[in-house]
Amino acid sequence: MLKLAPSLLAADFKRLEEQVQTVERAGAEYLHLDVMDGAFVPSISFGMPVIQSLRSCTGLVFDVHMMVEEPGRYIQDIKAAGADLICVHQEACIHLDRTVNQIKEAGLKAAVALNPATPVSTLENILPELDMVLIMSVNPGFGGQKFIPYALDKVRRVRAMADERGLETDIQVDGGVTAENAGALIQAGANVLVAGSAVFKGDAAANVRRFLDVFAAWEAKA
């Protein structure tokens, strides 16, 4: 099932509730929430109070992307704020298996993100425990960057790893995703696409529908 996850980081923060509800009504199923600490990545974004304040105004799946050092410290707080899924970076966890287990024990879906230069082989042992793998197609920390082409090959490799083991792992891509390159990502094996500027710049509802039209065309081929 193909899903669109608009990235809140690209929204107009003066109109967050309105914009979130706009993309939900247009057909998005996920809301991608980038939590940045200014240490693992250069930027600082938002944290639990913003997530909690939005939880009451939408039924979207809250896909919380933890771009922070040692994210295991915050699992319970992020859960309490309203997360449905927590994604942590392989590069940020000293004990990745422990952190993934913390997420699962909290009753949430668990995902692991890989920075562009991190090989997918680092997930070989943990893959069966994951609900989703996030392939970063830009270096994390800033919106509006250009898509890194070799991310496509990484998507293919993760999909192959999952298929070889009979796993129905979601593969998410984040960074430089547009309606124009969505087809190539889907063909490579991705099924959850994060889009920030491509959704929230201009008419957000129309932009969501543009992605959903691409999804429908691909699903019709399947």
From TrEMBL:
Any one Gene Ontology MF annotation carried by this entry is: metal ion binding
Enumerate the InterPro entries for this protein.
Answer: Aldolase_TIM, Ribul_P_3_epim, Ribul_P_3_epim-like, RibuloseP-bd_barrel
Annotated residues that bind a divalent metal cation are located at: H32, D34, H65, D174
Q: Relay the cofactor remark from the entry.
A: Binds 1 divalent metal cation per subunit.
Q: Name one GO biological process term.
A: pentose catabolic process
- List the active site: D34 (proton acceptor), D174 (proton donor)
Pathway the protein takes part in: Carbohydrate degradation
Q: Which residues hold substrate?
A: S7, H65, G141, F142, G143, G144, D174, G175, G176, G196, S197
EC id: 5.1.3.1
Q: Which cofactor does it need?
A: Mn(2+); Co(2+); Zn(2+); Fe(2+)
This entry carries the following GO cellular component terms, namely:
cytoplasm
Q: What reaction(s) does this enzyme catalyze?
A: D-ribulose 5-phosphate = D-xylulose 5-phosphate
Q: Could you list the residue ranges forming a coiled coil in this record?
A: none
**Keyword vocabulary terms for this entry:** Carbohydrate metabolism, Cobalt, Isomerase, Manganese, Metal-binding, Zinc
- Cite the NCBIfam families for this sequence: PRK05581.1-4, rpe
According to its UniProt record, which protein family does this protein belong to?
Belongs to the ribulose-phosphate 3-epimerase family.
| UniProt function note | Catalyzes the reversible epimerization of D-ribulose 5-phosphate to D-xylulose 5-phosphate.
State the HAMAP family in the record.
RPE
**Protein name (record):** Ribulose-phosphate 3-epimerase
Q: Which organism is it from?
A: Candidatus Lachnoclostridium stercoripullorum
Gene that produces this protein: rpe
